[in-house]
Design a protein that fits this description.
By secondary structure, the protein is α+β, with helices and mostly antiparallel strands. The chain has helices spanning 5-8, 69-79, 89-99, 145-155, 163-169, 175-190; strands at 11-13, 32-43, 50-56, 61-66, 102-113, 116-125, 138-143, 159-162, 171-172.
Length: 203
């Protein structure tokens, strides 16, 4: 399944750090990433389980990820800019990362397998003169998406989702706009005439 056009328009290329190599534009779609943003926390009406919802930049696609209550609370506190008197789990984790001389460059939700999402936290040496795009300065940390998102919100780090996960896991978030564009395209097709096309030679 291919990513919708509105997703492909703002895909960015990245190196899949878990394998430690760079990629070119000709590489597989699994290397393409889409920046997404936390829309909020919802509850599954049937099970009552929390769901963190990510939106793409256009707010046309939504990625729902079922998470635990503790992680939902941690994400909600970050969205509300709540500052605890004493550091809680994700605050402590960020403190440890920064005290060791690293920063959270970005988090990546890069795989969906057997109804389970996988994420990577990309840590970068926070030293003057460190090349921003150097693969060697990055340390990928395997993570659950909920923990990665909670940490990213505290670190003000971007959240990226692989194009394949976007294609497989997202749902339309703006049905009216999607329907309007579909109807507009249908009218365009119906209005085409043979005279609109110029005949050209073969291959």
């Amino acid at each position: 399944m291919c990513a919708p056009p509105e997703i492909r328009e703002h895909e960015v290329l990245f190196a899949k750090r878990r394998k430690g190599h760079k990629v070119d534009k000709g590489d597989s779609a699994e290397f393409l990433m889409v920046e997404m943003f936390v829309a909020g926390i919802a509850l599954d009406a049937r099970s009552g389980q929390p769901i963190v919802v990510l939106n793409d930049q256009t707010k046309r696609r939504a990625l729902p990820i079922w998470i635990g209550m503790a992680e939902a609370s941690a994400i909600s506190r970050a969205l509300d800019n709540y500052k605890p008197e004493r550091p809680m789990t994700h605050d402590l984790l960020l403190n440890v990362i920064t005290s060791l001389g690293y920063k959270v460059k970005q988090v990546e939700i890069n795989e969906l397998a057997s109804n389970t999402y996988f994420a990577t936290i990309q840590l970068q040496l926070n030293e003057p003169g460190t090349p921003a795009a150097s693969v060697e300065t990055l340390k990928p940390i395997d993570s659950r998406p909920s923990d990665a998102i909670a940490l990213a919100l505290r670190a003000k780090a971007p959240i990226f989702v692989s194009a394949q996960v976007v294609a497989d896991g997202t749902i339309p978030a703006d049905f009216e706009k999607d329907e309007a564009e579909a109807q507009e395209f249908k009218k365009f097709i119906e209005g085409l005439k043979a005279s609109d096309f110029k005949l050209s030679g073969g291959e």
